[in-house]
Design a protein that fits this description.
The complex is a heterodimer. By secondary structure, chain A is mainly β. Chain A has a single domain, classed as Lipocalin, CATH 2.40.128.90. Chain A contains one helix and ten strands. Chain A has a ten-stranded antiparallel barrel. In chain A, a hairpin with a 2-residue loop joins strand 2 (39-57) and strand 3. The radius of gyration of chain A is 17 Å and the shape is globular. Chain B is of the alpha+beta class. In chain B, strand 3 and strand 4 (158-175) form a beta hairpin. In chain B, helix 4 packs antiparallel against helix 5 (78-91), helix 4 (58-74) crosses helix 6 and helix 7 (242-261) packs antiparallel against helix 8 (272-290). The longest helix of chain B is centred in the C-terminal third of the chain and has 29 residues, at 299-327. The two termini of chain B are 50 Å apart. The chains are: A mainly beta, B alpha+beta. Chain A binds chain B through residues 32-34, 36-40, 43, 45, 74, 131, 133-135, 137, 139, 141, 143, 161, 163-167, 169, 172, 180-182, 184, 186, 188, 194, 196, 198, 200-202, 204, and chain B through 243, 246-247, 250-251, 253-254, 257-258, 261-263, 265-267, 269-270, 272-274, 276-278, 280-281, 284-285, 287-289, 291, 293-294.
């Protein structure tokens, strides 16, 4: 995680000198999560703080988001142990045409304690669509394939997918924004038997633009 | 003294001066005219001859010969009348008979006199103003017999040929006021001389003209094209349900995708996260549907304005080039002097 944060800081600093030709947003979030693993009985819900930095420069844009959730067993769940999950998401986008961008990214989720849930990392490849609803408001839709997934417990995931819906509203000069983001992940992990993972996240927050 | 009183006091003086101007200077000629008015033709002829024997100015001489012409016509002495009218025309080629005293005998005698002598009459130069090389001034004259008439403009030792042609009757010329080299005629006072030659007979008439030079007006640059106005480069689109529809569509796509992609082995996922963000998206879409849309760049208008700007720039380039040419041009003004004088 420290390496990831360091990389994020380096990226932010590298973009900072050209701030006039680009847009940078920094925001804080409250993150709500729903996590399931292996069977319907291992069901957790949680919440926690998050932060993100987004940037755009000509056709290139992207964001780095960090969230730390405290998952507790959901009511009716067979799970017994709470855990903390730290998730780092990196999205890099290249604008193609008509508000559609190609997206390449990376996701890394670690847990504490480590054995409480699967840690995983994967590369995301997909598309990102953006639509301006009106002055200061916009919608985003993204769909990614999660490739090359690695798990702390071993195994592989021939199929992993991620859907996202984002909405933001703020000043037309992007000095401030209210953001909401939904992310659904399904990873069909397999060892000797299927041990799938599924997570839904909702991030609600605010951001300042520079 | 008021202006009216002054005018009233001066008016008789003006009238007396005008009457005096019409009266001949020579007393004998005045007596001859009175005798003619009293229909004492013999006495009028006698007094006119006596007057001609005295020293008289040109106009008085012409008046005396004219009186003889009238008197001889009245006495049916056509030859003498014609001879008298010829003398009138030699002295005053532009002379016209008094229409109040005209009768057929007098008219015939005068026309016969005209046809028997060579004179250039009624030389006229129009008053004209034009850009050198792009216009011309009109010159007219009437020659009474077939003759070669050379027309020149003379200023001191400078003689500028204008025309040389054979003709009779009224002749109209167009003079571009240029030297043979094509340069504009220098400013100054010129005599336009029409010199007629027919055998041994020659006659010339002249008209004084003043030629002045001026700069040609230049054209101001355009700031806009007449009839064409710049269009607004941003337009506010009309309100529509499109934001709400798209928010609904995006939400539906993600919701349906989530439901479809849920792993059945993990049970039904919580809808809390999806519902929260979807509701926010729908509210944003609804609000944006009600809100006045942001002005959008009007690409057609921007293109139109660009074309307009290019047109104005192109026209201004043309004007600039034209002004360079205009600054090299000369505005010629030709103004004839009021009186044509016979050149001896």
């Amino acid at each position: 995680m420290k390496r990831a944060l360091g990389g994020f800081a380096v990226l932010a600093c590298a973009l900072a000198p050209g701030a006039r030709a680009q847009k940078i947003q920094v925001g804080g979030q409250v993150v709500f999560g729903d996590y399931r693993e292996q069977t319907a009985s291992l069901h957790y819900t949680g919440a926690g703080p998050g932060a993100f930095v987004a940037f755009s420069r000509r056709k290139l844009s992207g964001d780095v988001a960090v969230a730390r959730l405290s998952y507790d067993p959901a009511s009716g769940s067979g799970a017994t142990q709470s855990f903390h999950a730290t998730q780092i998401d990196v999205h890099l986008r290249w604008y193609l045409a008509s508000s559609v961008s190609a997206e390449l990214g990376w996701v890394r989720r670690t847990t504490s304690p480590e054995v409480a849930a699967q840690e995983m990392g994967a590369v995301r490849i997909g598309m990102h669509a953006f639509y301006g609803l009106g002055p200061g408001a916009d919608l985003t839709l993204r769909a990614n394939y999660l490739a090359g997934a690695k798990f702390s417990g071993g195994g592989s995931a021939p199929f992993g997918i991620e859907l996202g819906l984002g909405v933001s509203y703020g000043a037309t000069n992007a000095r401030w924004r209210l953001t909401g983001d939904y992310e659904f992940q399904r990873v069909d992990r397999k060892t000797s038997v299927p041990v799938p993972l599924q997570q839904s996240l909702a991030r609600v927050g605010a951001a300042l633009g520079f | 003294m008021s202006a009216k009183r002054l005018l009233r006091a001066l008016l008789p003086l003006f009238l007396a001066a005008a009457a005096h101007a019409q009266q001949p200077q020579n007393a004998t000629l005045r007596s001859a005219l009175r005798a003619y008015d009293n229909v004492d033709l013999t006495q009028a002829i006698t007094l006119a001859h006596r007057a001609l024997a005295e020293r008289m100015a040109g106009p008085d001489q012409a008046r005396a010969y004219e009186l003889l012409g009238y008197a001889y016509s009245a006495l049916d002495s056509a030859d003498k009348a014609i001879t008298a009218f010829k003398q009138v025309l030699f002295i005053e080629p532009d002379h016209e008979l008094d229409s109040l005293k005209l009768n057929p005998k007098v008219s015939v005698a005068f026309e016969l006199a005209l046809s028997q002598i060579l004179v250039v009459r009624q030389l006229r130069v129009d008053s004209s103003s034009f850009v050198g090389g792009q216009g011309a001034v009109g010159i007219r004259y009437r020659v009474t017999e077939p003759a070669r008439v050379r027309v020149t403009a003379v200023n001191g030792n400078t003689v500028i040929p204008i025309d040389s042609s054979v003709g009779v009757g009224t002749v109209n010329l167009r003079w571009p006021v240029q030297l043979p080299s094509g340069d504009p005629v220098p400013a100054g006072t010129y005599q336009i001389i029409a010199e007629a030659h027919a055998g041994q007979n020659t006659f010339s008439a002249s008209q004084t003209v003043v030629i002045t030079h001026g700069t040609v007006d230049t054209v101001a640059h355009l700031t806009s094209l007449p009839g064409y106005q710049r269009l607004p480069e941003q337009e506010t689109p009309p309100r529509s349900w499109r934001p709400m529809g798209l928010a609904f569509l995006y939400t539906a796509v993600v919701g349906a995708g989530t439901v479809a992609l849920e792993n059945s082995n993990l049970g039904t996922a919580s809808r809390r996260e999806l519902a929260g963000v979807s509701a926010a998206a729908l509210v944003a879409g609804f609000v944006m549907t009600l809100k006045k849309p942001a002005p959008q760049p009007a690409l057609g208008n921007i293109l139109y304005n660009q074309l307009l700007t290019e047109q104005i720039a192109r026209r201004n380039q043309e004007i600039a080039a034209d002004n360079v040419r205009r600054r090299q041009q000369v505005q010629m003004v030709v103004a004839p002097a009021p009186k044509a004088r016979r050149v001896p």
